UniProtKB/TrEMBL annotation:
It is a multi-pass membrane protein. Gene3D superfamilies: UbiA prenyltransferase (1.10.357.140). GO terms for molecular function: protoheme IX farnesyltransferase activity. It comes from Sphaerosporella brunnea. It comes from the Eukaryota. Residues 451-462 have a biased composition (Acidic residues). This is Protoheme IX farnesyltransferase, mitochondrial.
Length: 477
């Protein structure tokens, strides 16, 4: 027993990584123990077991844990490393905090850096000044976010219900040229808003891991260059929307720049309500796409006429609701960085509210999708397909709500939101009301008889008109 205590005291004062043959005292004691105690295992077995324990320092709780071959400490002189690992609640407070920080750091790496940071890194590595400046200016636009906004605008434009009487090739209602102006103008307006956002926050961006590589933080561009880029792209975007689409869409684009750069950006340091303001910014692009499509059939082209159909507002509500599960999951792993940078986010101020809001707005997807079918934007098949995607998002939001983001739940909800929205918009366009009716009628021959009878009636009418004209000519003679 005295020998056991001597070895235990030696192990308690020696780091596990240094426990090898160079530590002559422990080596000799263990060698003596293996030769003089026939009831113990040989030295090689004991030494390998101690090396296994060295990889798990949290199991070194009591001296007897070092001597797994002692038959009085375990059944049949055997014990398992797993059996003696204490639960997390049994760890000392300092080790428990260290373990929680390590898990939070591991979860932190799952959220990828934004495209601006990646482009800034690539820009700094370029040897050509032209390439370096081009990538730096491109990073101001936040390409990933801009691409997502353009996608939602195009999807809303494509989902506008076209009257079958006006959808013939002779009288198309949706112009490809209008779509080009819409996408280009939306991308330019979004780039302007993002550039103004970066020009306002370089001192705060350098305090966060996701944004410290942005071009203004790294000195690739100056604040005046960012503001100049924002002014140029904003003016070009609004002009493209006004000249190529209609004034209502141009006004919505200008309003989005103002809300994002003038209201949402400074509000992030004032109140957690900034997330709701940012969600409004996300809901405006679908209204722009809807107003662009409805302008082709409008009589007066007023704001109320272009946005009178509920479909545009339902698509805007879809994007508004999506912001919360996406951003609340994104902000959770870096909540301490938001706190240190002075941003007022619910992830660190009100963690329970943060998880509850993400779940609440995830559930809102179900009635919104039902509304799209009810008002004739999509067909009934969209209810089935969308329910599968929405159930997936709600499932991840529920786990996020239960665990509060721990254990990788924030990462799972984040990636679910990243994939759910594009897939949902693609399904909505695939299930557009009346899209498959022409294919169905052509495949089964339905409606061909009606078309033939209509053509015959038209021909008969033309013949009657010719006879009447000839009769009038003879009478005049």
């Amino acid at each position: 027993m005295l020998l056991h205590r001597t070895i235990a005291s030696r192990l308690a004062t020696s780091p596990p990584a240094r426990f090898n043959t160079t530590n002559r005292v422990c080596y000799q004691c263990l060698n003596t123990l293996s030769r003089t105690s026939p009831e113990h295992r040989n030295f090689s077995s004991t030494f390998s077991k101690l090396q296994t324990l060295a990889a798990a320092p949290e199991t070194w709780r009591k001296p007897q844990h070092y001597f797994l071959s002692n038959r009085f400490l375990s059944k049949r002189g055997r014990s398992s490393v797993v059996d003696i690992v204490p639960p997390v609640s049994a760890l000392p407070p300092h080790r428990r905090r260290r373990k929680e920080k390590a898990e939070a750091a591991a979860d932190n790496t799952a959220i990828p850096p934004d495209a601006s940071s990646l482009l800034s890194t690539s820009s700094a590595a370029q040897k050509s000044a032209l390439h370096r400046d081009a990538l730096a200016y491109l990073s101001l636009a936040k390409p990933r976010l801009t691409a997502l906004i353009v996608l939602t605008t195009m999807a809303s434009y494509a989902l506008f219900p076209v009257d079958p009487l006006l959808s013939s090739p002779a009288a198309p209602t949706l112009s490809a040229l209008t779509l080009v102006y819409l996408t280009a103008g939306t991308a330019l307006c979004c780039s302007s808003a993002n550039a103004l956002n970066m020009a306002y926050e370089p001192n705060f961006d350098r305090l966060m891991s996701r944004t410290r590589n942005r071009p203004l933080v790294r000195g690739l561009l100056s604040t005046s260059q960012a503001v100049g880029f924002a002014g140029l792209t904003g003016a070009a975007g609004i002009a493209a929307l006004h000249l190529g689409v209609n004034p209502t869409v141009a006004a919505l684009g200008a309003l989005n720049i103002f809300i994002y750069a003038g209201v949402y950006t400074p509000m992030k340091r004032v109140s957690v309500a900034n997330t709701w303001v940012g969600a409004i910014v996300g809901g405006i692009p679908p209204l722009m796409g809807w107003a662009a499509a409805s302008g082709a059939v409008a009589l007066d082209g007023t704001f109320m006429e272009l946005l009178s159909h509920p479909g545009g507002w339902l698509l805007a509500a879809l994007l508004f609701a999506w912001q919360f599960p996406h951003f609340n999951a994104l902000s959770w792993p870096i909540r301490e960085e938001y706190r240190n940078a002075g941003y007022q986010m619910a992830a660190w101020k009100y963690p329970a509210l943060n998880a509850r809001v993400a779940l609440r707005y995830s559930l809102l997807f179900f009635p919104i999708c039902v509304g799209l079918w009810y008002y004739g934007v999509t067909d009934v098949g969209f209810l089935v397909d969308s329910s599968v995607l929405n159930a997936w998002l709600v499932r991840e939001a529920w786990k996020f709500y239960q665990k509060g983001g721990e254990g990788g739940r924030a990462r799972s909800l984040f990636w679910a939101s990243v994939w759910q929205l594009p897939l949902l918009l693609v399904l909505a366009m695939a299930h557009k009301a009346g899209l498959w009716r022409g294919v169905y009628e052509k495949f089964l021959g339905v409606g061909q008889e009606e078309e033939e009878s209509w053509e015959e009636e038209e021909e008969e009418g033309e013949e009657v008109t010719k006879v009447q004209e000839e009769a009038q000519t003879v009478t005049h003679r």
